[in-house]
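Hi U.,

Before I forget, here's the chain from the pilot set. I'm dumping it here mostly so it's searchable later in email.
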Amino acid sequence: MQLHLTRPEAVIFDMDGLLLDSERVSLTLYAEAAKSLDLKWDHAVGLQTIGISSTETDHIFHDAFGADYPIASLRERFGELYEAAIIAGDIPPKPFARELLMRLDALRIPCAVATSTRRTRAEAKLHRAHLTQHFKAMACGDEVMRGKPHPEIYELAANRLGIEASRCLALEDSNAGVRSAVSANMQVVMVPDLLRPDPGIRMLGVPAVTSLKDVLVAIG
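Structure:
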């Protein structure tokens, strides 16, 4: 089914799994980190953490693996592996991300990023993928009190662009991210990566498309 959009005044992108093909890398490296520390790991548990804040991730890990699960040690080892992946260029843009951003530049539609990732890491990833120049603003996980699915991060991104949230298009791959953008009163399109739209998302009437190419075609 063809996607139909009201042309927005701005577009706000999630980053991991939407702009960057990073979620698979993250889950692989979490499993590698856990193995190196002789810790429990479950891919299904990892999937539950997609698109949410580190605080919420901690709750999920504790619920799954126990209150004494050494999250700090796991995260430290994961961070070492992940930073190496960023430097090595192992986190490429998703298909049609660059083309869509170039088209939005040509249309003079400003863009921002709203990501649960902390700013220093987000900036490094976008820089390594050669996407930084396309964004007028960023709102990052360490700059808000409440992460996705709360709307704060999308509201902050719109505010930094100087454009009313209701006039922005949000592009998301995760269910938590979609809820965040919908709660911010934005036009939202889901481009699923590792997670499919859950029943609640379908009830919200948010369109789900195959790739960013569908958004590129709809933007015109």
